[in-house]
Amino acid sequence: MIERRWTSRAPVNLDVEVLCHHGAGMAACKALDIGLGGVFLKINPDEILPDSNVELFFLLGEGESRIKHKIKAKIVRTTMHGMGLMFRDFDATAFRSLQEVLHYYKDTKTQ
């Protein structure tokens, strides 16, 4: 299989909610890797249709101080272990949210 990513990905273990407007509604899952171009989610592939446009909500922090960062994405690959998504409509707000997600994960790994 040929790798088509234009950016590298870093392994993570982050809580994510996926909102699919056509089908399952909101589904909870884990992000296993992430980069500037996209993310791989550990989720049952039957929950969301392939090629769907979705909204991802990365859940950072604990309890009442938990913050959600929203990034739009499109499902581009499914496997028996989950699905790969490519970020879309990547504007300055989405870029800042992704930076905060990556920074948060890096900080939790060093503690």
Could you list some keywords that capture this structure?
single chain; 111 residues; alpha+beta; Thrombin, subunit H; 6-stranded antiparallel barrel; 16% helix; globular
Task: Please tell me about this protein's structure.
- With 111 residues, the chain is α+β, with helices and mostly antiparallel strands.
- The chain has a single domain, classed as predicted glycosyltransferase like domains (Thrombin, subunit H, Beta Barrel).
- The protein contains 1 helix and 6 strands; from the N terminus they run ββββββα.
- It has one helix spanning 92-109, and strands spanning 10-20, 25-34, 38-42, 53-60, 67-79, 82-87.
- The protein has a 6-stranded antiparallel beta barrel with strand order 1-2-3-6-5-4.
- β1 and β2 form a beta hairpin.
- 22% of the residues are buried.
- The model has no long low-confidence stretch (mean pLDDT 83).
